[in-house]
Amino acid sequence: MTYGKTIFAIAAALAMAISAGSANAARTDITVGLQLEPPHLDPTGAAAGAIDQVVYANIFEGLTRFASDGSIVPGLAKSWEISEDGLSYTFTLNSGVKFHDGTAMDAEDVKFSLDRARAEDSTNAQKGLFADIANVDVIDPLTVQVTLSQQNGSFLFNLAWGDAVIVAPESIDNIKTKPVGTGPFVLSNWVQGDRIELVKNPDYWGKPISLDKATFKFISDPTAAFAAVMAEDVDAFMAFPAPENLAQFAADSRFKVLVGSTEGETILAINNKLPPFDNIKVREAVAHAIDRQAIIDGAMFGYGTPIGSHFAPHNPAYIDLTANSAYDPDKSRALLAEAGLADGFTTTLKLPPPSYARRGGEIIAAQLKAVGITVEISNLEWAQWLEQVFRGKDFGLTIVSHTEPMDIGIYARPDYYFQYDNPAFQAVMKDLNASTDPAERTSLLQKAQTMISEDYVNAYLFQLANTGVANAKIEGLWANAPTQAVDLTGVSWTD
Questions:
Q1: For the segment 27-54, what is each residue's pLDDT rounded down to a tens digit?
Q2: Which of 163, 308, 399, 447 has the fewest other C-beta atoms within 10 Å?
Q3: What number does CATH give the domain 61-168?
Q4: Which run of H or of E encompasses 133?
């Protein structure tokens, strides 16, 4: 009898111990809230930053990649050598890398990806990243040589963009809905309008990850986003759309608030070829009509850093040019009069979905109205914005945050959506690409910043802050965002 009781007690204790151990084990799943759902999942075929938020480093990888501090580190390429003339890059690839469909990733796939990105019929939104590539040669399955037509000191940096990830020709036809990459996560399910589910790649070649499953939940409404976090229906919400709620989260021990920098230059973009904006005095008038701090306070609840050019304040080459376009409504009115528009004019303001645009747009409309510029606001979904504004160039004004890293080079593209065509600026960018000297590159970057500031290409508003909220037990989420991505490769739960 005693023996039986003893056995029962031991069994019960063991069961309790196992149960307690299971209860205390760190979780291996995560649900991340995002405001915007990507239009598709091909980062090499669209400009929507929402794509990279889901797929960068998680599903797709490039030869190089961004670390959390913005530095460039090896990706699929474990090392590289640069020729003395700076025109030849020889990449040595990691061995044993497989795509999610089980096929090997090798130098032929690298050649295919880079040739596809730079092809005449390429739909890559950042095709200019690859413009200097003259040839891509396969040396052997793990070695590929890229030859440039001219020196490009930003080439390794360019290869870290989401637009430069390596894709497989076998899966390219269905890449938008069935992405096949080399990353640590595999797409398992996409319920459009609701969520995207990823699962751990059991055959991942790189550093093992802690998570077994990741779900991206799309919640566009800021009020609903707040409710989802408070109810713990999501474990984290990156780029949280209601900054007014962050203080409440910070005061709640269940959560931690993540505040950092981004590469997001938020601008009031101007169609430089559309009259009357083809007159620099009109563009300058727009710039002086804008009270940046009022927008930061009113739309972003104080989160954001004023900028006077298209350049991130945390970059060592940054110069503060906000004085060039200081808030001065009287000067704005005088400039309009000089341009023959003393009675003002009417134009369009087409706004994409993010709250910085919708909320900021209402404030800017009132500021412009005060100097005689009437704007007709159109609230667009991303697909509409991409079609009408980005591709169609059918707009007067728009608000958008450019989240690509150090992308001042877009001003050297005359056909880019704001249509700035300045040969002098293009020459500066050409010199920058040809230079590898740090001091010279800094000088050229500062010259470029000054040029677009003084040409009033756009009205420069603020550097978007990276604001997120997460369960206090989650570790490894990026506070700073060197690119628009929710990199889950280093994320884990504490016990």
A1: 999 999 999 999 999 999 876 778 999 9
A2: 447
A3: 3.90.76.10
A4: strand 133-140
- DSSP classification of residue 388: I
- Of the listed ranges 35-39, 344-348, 431-435, 456-460, the least confidently predicted one is 431-435
Structure tokens at 115: 């040739």
Give CA 196 to chain center in angstroms: 18
Cβ density class 202-214: b for 16+ within 10 Å, e for less: eebbbeebbbeeb
Span 264-463 CATH architecture: Roll (3.10)
Reply yes or no on whether the pLDDT at 18 is more than 50: no
Structural fold of domain 29-35+178-260+466-493: D-Maltodextrin-Binding Protein; domain 2 (3.40.190)
pLDDT digits (tens, 9 = 90+) for 168-204: 999 999 999 999 999 999 999 999 999 999 999 999 9
Q: Is 93 helix (H, G, I), strand (E, B) or coil?
A: strand
Closest to 371 measured CA to CA, from 458, 284, 296, 280 = 284
260: enclosing H helix or E strand: strand 255-270
- In this structure, the number of other CB atoms found within 10 A of the CB of residue 378 comes to 16
3-state DSSP call for residue 328? Answer: coil
pLDDT tens-digit map of 280-329: 999 999 999 999 999 999 999 999 999 999 999 988 899 999 999 999 99
**Cβ contacts of 73 within 8 Å, gap of 6 or more:** 64, 65, 66, 67
Residue with tokens 């300045």: 422
What is the spatial distance between Cα 50 and Cα 239, in angstroms, rounded to a whole number? 11
The partner residues of 92 in beta bridges, in order of sequence, read 79, 143
Strands (DSSP E) contained in 141-248 are: 143-148, 185-191, 195-200, 213-218, 236-237
Phi, psi (5° rounding) for residue 280?
A: -60, -30
Question: Which H/E stretch holds residue 374?
Answer: strand 373-379
**Every domain of the chain and the residues it spans:** 29-35+178-260+466-493, 61-168, 264-463
d(CA 247, CA 245): 6
Where would I find the H helices in 37-106?
49-55
Write down the pLDDT at residue 483. Answer: 87
Do the beta carbons of residue 403 and residue 262 sit within 8 Å? yes
User: Is 205:182 a contact under the CB 8 Å cutoff?
Assistant: yes
Phi-psi region of 344 (alpha: psi -120 to 50; beta: other; left: phi over 0): left
Instruction: Supply 430's token pair.
Output: 């050409």
CA distances from 442 to 238, 276, 317, 445 (A): 32, 34, 5, 5
Give the distance from CA 290 to its chain's centroid: 25
Distance CA 425, CA 412 (A): 6
436, two tokens = 């590898």
The SS3 of residue 32 is: strand
Helix (H) or strand (E) holding 471: strand 459-471
